[in-house]
Structure formats: C-alpha cells, structure tokens
Amino acid sequence: MLNRVRVLFILIAVILLAAFSPKAAPDPGQPDSLILDSVIVVLGSRATVPIYVVNDEPLAGIEMTLQIGSTDMVFDSVSFAGGRAADVSIRGWTQNGSHLTIYCIPWSTDAPIPVGNDQIGLLYFSYPPSAPTQLVPIDTSTLIISDLIYSTTFSDVNSASFAPKFVPGYLDVNLSNCCIGTRGNVNSDSEQKVNVTDITYLVKFLFGIPQGPAPLCTEEANANGDQEEKVNVTDLTYLTSFLFGGGPPPPSCP
C-alpha cells in the first residue's frame, strides 16, 4: 500500500513539474538566418536595404560581414531603431574597401536579442548621380586582417558562435522610376489598369502555396504609397477597399 502511495506521489510530482516548467520558445519553422532584402532604387535617391533575422533562441551577438558588389555604392549608416536589437548597447560598423562589417552585441547588463523572425535593421547607401544603372549584389564574405577574422556569425547566450543561413540581396539601380502614372498596377500589365487581376496577383504573391512571382515594379505594387516602399497586406487591403468599398484611389507614383 505504501509503495502504491509512493508511486502515485511521484507521478503527481512529475505531472506538476511538467506543467509548470518553462516552455521552450516556439521554433519559427526555418533555420537561424540572416536575410538581406533586394530593392529597386532610382538614380538620385537613397538606397535602403532591410535586414531580417530569424532565430529560435536568444542571441548574445550578431556580426555580419558583407561585400558590396560596386564601388559606386557608398555605405552611409545602419539603423536598428524599432527592432529587436534597438536596446543593445554595443552597435556599430567598420569598412575595409568593399567589405563592410556590422556588429550588434548586448552588453553584460543588456537583455539578449530575443527570439523572432522579422526585420531587425536597415542599411543605407548613397551613390553619385553619375553612377550607371546596374545590379549591385550584397553578399556575405570572410575577411582576415592581422589575424582577426570578420565573418557573418550569431552568438548564443553561452558565447558559442555559429554561422547562420545567409540570403544575399541586391540593389537594382535604375535611371527612372518603373511606376507610371499612379500606383496599383501590381501585375504590370501594358494597359496600366488597376483592377481585380492586380488583387489576384497580390494574393498569390503574399499567400500563395507555392508563392506567386514578386511584382516587377515595387513602386506600382506599393498601392498605398507608404514611404518604405514595401509590398504587404496593407496594399492588398487598400486595393480591395478602392475597387469594392469606395476607398480612395492609389496615390501617384513618386
């Protein structure tokens, strides 16, 4: 009888321990990654490249070493404002020719960079008006200077470093804006009409399995004209409201 009571007590203790133990953070469903966006820019305008970070455990450091594929591009700055690394104390960048190293390291009193799967920062570039139209790749690289190794790595809270999956980006520099007249022609049809086919195209791109093709012209697909020139669900809502709900028409092209 005592043995049964003892076994029952152990089982209850195990159940309670499992119920109240801290749960592991949810896995975002893809490997730890550092992803650079690809953007279309017009000569004379500033280029902004979003940085996305995917991590399923807190990070005690992010280092990214990038190689810029054109000497015409001038790196201006990096911003982590509003992202998961906004409160990190040690942030900055160094540049060696076409190589750029950006670091983001929580101080001992800082909280680690939390788990997430979203935009964490922005890279800003400028270039002279005389620069030719071109496709500028931005890829990861490893640089060794005086026995110091610069690369793209994440560090966990135990100070163990590992290489994340890296997705390169590019800057597509154009002479003029691809947007003609007004925004909203998501599928870039030659008639420049805004209709239900644009909504269908956007739905497939945003939610399709498999995903539909990206819009050829980001400015036209950015139906609501937000300043970041992003194509997302807010553009789908804007177009739907315009075509079926009496909402305002898409704004003019930049």
Written overview of the protein:
This protein is α+β, with helices and mostly antiparallel strands. The protein folds into 2 domains: 33-174, Immunoglobulin-like (Sandwich), CATH 2.60.40.680; 177-254, Type 1 dockerin domain (Orthogonal Bundle). The protein has 4 helices and 15 strands. The strands form 3 sheets. Strands 2, 4, 6, 7, 9, 12, 13 and 15 form an 8-stranded mixed sheet that branches. It has a 5-stranded mixed sheet with strand order 5-8-3-1-14, with no helix packed on it. The protein has a two-stranded antiparallel sheet with strand order 10-11. α2 runs antiparallel to α4. It is globular. Residues 1-27 have low confidence and may be disordered.
Helix content: 10-25%
Q: Total number of β-strand segments?
A: 15
Distance between the termini: 82 Å
Multimeric state: single chain
Unreliable residue stretches: 1-27
Domain module count: 2
Q: Mind telling me which CATH architecture of the largest domain this is? A: Sandwich
Number of helices: 4
Instruction: State the shape.
Output: globular
Biggest sheet character: 8 strands, mixed
Top-tier CATH class of the largest domain:
Mainly Beta
- CATH topology call of the largest domain: Immunoglobulin-like
Q: What is the alpha-carbon Rg in Å?
A: 24 Å
Strand % is 25-35%
Computed structural class: alpha+beta
Order of helices and strands: HEEEEEEEEEEEEEEEHHH
Could you report the average pLDDT, rounded to the nearest whole number?
85
